[in-house]
Design goal:
Shape: rod-shaped
CATH architecture of one domain: Orthogonal Bundle
Order of helices and strands: HHHH
Radius of gyration: 32 Å
Number of strands: 0
Number of helices: 4
Distance between the termini: 75 Å
Strand content: under 5%
Length: about 150
């Protein structure tokens, strides 16, 4: 796979996902992965507030999504540090995701518009060539008639 200069692997994957209309599985996988990782970490550092892995994952996904219901919250210092990191990742992830997906959709639409314009120009050029060919044929016919005309 060739990479264009200045493009990251993530940008390339995102563009392909958008072009193929497969954005949702990537979003779901990244959110789930971050939620599982954050849930695991917060379970390790704050056993009191997060007694089960399921509760921790619930909290992590809700926090990543910037919803923060408040039904489960960390009370220890390390739990709050993890919570702060998860909040920053959630906000950053949503902003990055929105910008990247929007940019990819716009790029795909622009590329389609350019392709459509190229097809229109090619059709117009073909039509112009046909008209010029017809005009040349008519001029040749006129010249042939003029050449057969008796000279005075």
């Amino acid at each position: 796979m060739r990479r264009r200069r200045g493009r990251s692997w993530l940008t390339g994957r995102t563009e392909r996902a958008v072009v193929n209309r497969r954005v949702f599985p990537y979003l779901a996988l990244v959110t789930l992965g971050l939620g599982l990782l954050a849930g695991f970490v917060v379970t390790l550092v704050d056993r009191k507030d997060f007694p089960t892995f399921g509760t921790a994952v619930w909290w992590a996904i809700v926090t990543l999504g910037t919803v923060g219901y408040g039904d489960v919250v960390p009370h220890t210092a390390w739990g709050r540090v993890v919570g702060s990191i998860v909040i920053v990742f959630g906000v950053t992830f949503i902003a990055f995701l929105t910008a990247t997906v929007t940019s990819a959709f716009v790029s795909a639409a622009e590329e389609e518009a350019r392709a459509s314009e190229r097809r229109r120009e090619e059709a117009s050029e073909l039509e112009l060539r046909e008209l010029l060919s017809d005009l040349k044929g008519q001029l040749d016919a006129i010249e042939a008639k003029l050449d057969r005309r008796p000279r005075a």
